[in-house]
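Budget justification note: compute hours in this period were largely spent on complex prediction jobs such as the one shown. Inputs:
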Amino acid sequence: MILNVYEQKKPFYLYTGRGPSSEAMHMGHLIPFIFTKWLQDTFDVPLVIQLTDDEKFLWKDLTLEQTNHLAFENAKDIIACGFDVEKTFIFSDLDFLTNSPAFYRTICRIQKLVTYNQVKGIFGFTDSDSIGKISFPAIQAAPSFSCMFPEIFNGRSDIPCLIPCAIDQDPYFRMTRDVAPRMGCLKPALIHSTFFPALQGAQTKMSASDPNSSIFVTDTDEEIKDKINKYAFSGGGATVEEHKTKGGNCEVDVSYQYLTFFMEDDQRLEEIRMAYTSGELMTGSLKKELIDILQKMVGEHRQRREAVTDEVVRQFMKPRKLKYDYPAL
Ligand code: TYM
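Corresponding output:
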């Protein structure tokens, strides 16, 4: 779909989001945003970013004030990924819903088409879940439809939407794609980024409440070094001898897996894979490669985030027309 609309210069927009449940975002959260920035730069299209402070209020032990504050703070990390203010609208559900009739109307249209039985099947809700949780999926679905943003799309409801995210968000958009034709709207297209594993391995989960489960954008150089050396699950041999004879297993080695996300030079990555698999490269040296890359990436992110003032966040969050190059609109 992307190439098709690109070649024909047909308009489309990007939609992604973040559930602000903690101050610090981990590297996994950043993956879809880094990818979204690439898509925005490459295709030169408008982007909307939803901050679901309402979702986190409903699911976590947090007040409305806390999740709304976290949305504002997370917006700084998102902006630090380098989005273009002229082409990007970031909104908190709690703030935008109070002054956007089009948002609420789109939600109502979705809610009317989805039964309790369907959301129970998709999300696993039980009878003791709050009605807030049960109705929330319609709020995450709504920005997939351009009619929700009359200030951006001049009231057009036929602008296709592309959603970059990871697989954990798929249930929301399976529901969205199901209701779209019944609303007379276009189905959004999805593009999934690979799931970034926890330091302890793909079988474990990254959690904001366990600082050792991942690298966070707030980690210092020293913390990055310690966490990778201590916690990154190794596919290397148990002893130097064993490693040299049997080699390392890149399939399960978390440091290698992280390098596949962040090492720009594919040829170097392949050299590392071969040297590690043959046992020539030791785990410590592999980890060192990763530590250097992560310290640089996180350090640069930290600097860019420091430059994002409250005023900059307010500019991104102001409902307004976005700049794009489609004469038909
Ligand atoms: P949240 O805050 O849990 O996650 C934000 C984004 O990060 C992705 N993600 C990951 N990507 C790679 N590896 C991981 N380990 C990893 N963990 C999380 C998520 O898929 C997401 O793209 N309900 C949503 C917020 C939301 C949203 C959206 C997300 C609202 N509208 C539209 C994507 C698209 C949430 O809580 O995301």
